[in-house]
Amino acid sequence: MEYRFPKDFLWGAATSSYQVEGNNYNDWVEWEHVNSARLAAEAAKRHANAHMRIPEYILNNYPNPLQPENYISGRVCDHYNRFKEDFDIAKQIGHNAHRFSIEWSRVEPEEGKFDEKEIEHYQQVIAALCERGLEPFVTLWHWTVPIWFRDKGGWLNKDAPKYFERYVTIISRSLNYRHIKFWITINEPNVFASNSFLKGVWPPRYKNIFKYFKVLKNLAKAHKKSYEIIKKENPTAQVGISKNNIYFENIPFADYFWNKYFLNKIKSQQDFIGLNYYFHSRLFGNRNEDVTDMGWEIYPEGIYYVLRGLKKYNLPIYVTENGLADIKDEKRGKFIKDHLKWIHKVISESVDVRGYLYWSLLDNFEWDKGFWPRFGLVEIDYETLERKIRPSAYEYAKICKSNILEI
Ligand code: FCB
């Protein structure tokens, strides 16, 4: 079968600053140093349990979940210095779009003091993308914050949206000469808020539902203000967020609170919806017939339902993340194709999906899980930093270059 995608469909991959750049200094970096030993010990405890044993093929790699250095991001992929080489690869494997994020802590390391050299760095990143025919999707905030902002209480501070607004004003002014079309203000507001303020697993590790809603409220406010700022700078810019939506099978209240609540709050300040799809959830437990290295269920059909659920917003949709940890690269090619098949189906039913960005271009630092989950189309050897294009990246390249999925 041949599935042809709409003309001008965007194909590419996504990254985020902290997860690939290396040598950042933000709230997460400080947190890693305090928590790496604990995280390694917790992994060892899991491993000691026969039902939760970590497979040998993961432990044979460097760094692995039992080592504290697995949880210290350090130089990561050194993408900060190698972005041109990495974008050459993206171009070579057929991409025509790329999502990346700006590291707030780099451009505003001290409150109100902006670092011109770092702003220039991101100007160069954008220039490098444009030179290679890669349409930039600029994410303004992908979870990490400057130390000074954290010290003020971070997103719990009532003035947090104002601080963010100042940063967005400077960035949109300094980058807009490139007429950047796609801006993502905020990545996955509810994944951030629930892990950091409700479940207590990410910094600052609160477990408090009031704080959770307060943070969501501030994030929505920050988004709306940013929307106005960017549109004022460039009225043709397309501004949205990346939203993690889950396919809740017959769980309407969860569908409302997780998938719709935040989008409804910012309804009139969005030009597109960025969808990040990873999860499916059934009321009485998932079947988990096929899982990733992280144990996440592989459920391609879910993307169809989630996209259908977004139709009511009547906006263009870009899949801004979808991917899996698969160190052996055994499942990735099929994973991408299966998801694309369902995306194609939903497009044929007139849901306006205009692009697909795989997570991720490179292996990278997966938050509190650290290095071991391998999401990349491109493998990173963390000892030598050598890049190796995985076979699945070539399978995906065929689709990107032809605009046709063949199964
Ligand atoms: C998403 C995040 C992204 C990455 C993937 C695996 O929730 O936005 O940074 O960690 O999950």
TrEMBL record:
Domain of life of the native organism: Bacteria
Residues of the active site: 321 (nucleophile)
Matches recorded under InterPro entries: GH (IPR017853), Glyco_hydro_1 (IPR001360), Glyco_hydro_1_AS (IPR018120)
GO MF terms, alphabetically ordered: beta-glucosidase activity
Keywords associated with the record: Glycosidase, Hydrolase
PROSITE patterns listed in its UniProt record: GLYCOSYL_HYDROL_F1_1
GO terms classed as biological process: carbohydrate metabolic process
Pfam families: Glyco_hydro_1
Family of this protein: Belongs to the glycosyl hydrolase 1 family.
Protein's name according to its UniProt entry: Glycoside hydrolase family 1 protein
Organism: Candidatus Tagabacteria bacterium CG09_land_8_20_14_0_10_41_14
Lineage start: Bacteria, Candidatus Tagaibacteriota
